[in-house]
Design brief:
mainly alpha; about 80% helix
Length: about 120
């Protein structure tokens, strides 16, 4: 009779643990879905901002190779400065997405080659 009681007790324990395990698995699935959403949001913005930044960096880098006066180069740099200032909302949005990704402890993103530098000295 003792074996039947032990079996009944174990069965009761399993029936209590299964819903708990299901809840844990469900919570993890929701967390992973949220992480993927964060990855995709960051990647969409990072891919466009990254290309835009690379084009501006190329412009600055090629300045030294271009013909023209120093004044012409300074005008171009001021023009780029204004362009970057106008683009600032996109950079701020990307930073917001990056902050959310960091807070979620997401360390990989297969959707983009871009990352943002993180300063620990803030």
């Amino acid at each position: 009779m003792r074996g039947a009681q032990e079996l009944t007790q174990k069965w009761r324990e399993v029936r209590e643990l299964v819903p708990k395990r299901d809840a844990i698995l469900q919570a993890e699935m929701v967390r992973q879905q949220n992480n993927e959403r964060l990855r995709e949001q960051f990647a969409a913005k990072a891919n466009s901002v990254g290309q835009w930044l690379e084009a501006r960096i190329d412009q600055v880098a090629s300045l030294g190779l271009q013909k023209g006066t120093l004044e012409d180069h300074i005008k171009l740099l001021h023009s780029l400065e204004d362009e970057v200032a106008g683009y600032r909302p996109n950079l701020d949005e990307l930073e917001k997405y990056n902050q959310e990704v960091q807070e979620a402890l997401v360390f990989d993103n297969p959707h983009t080659p871009y990352t943002m530098e993180v300063s620990c000295l803030d």
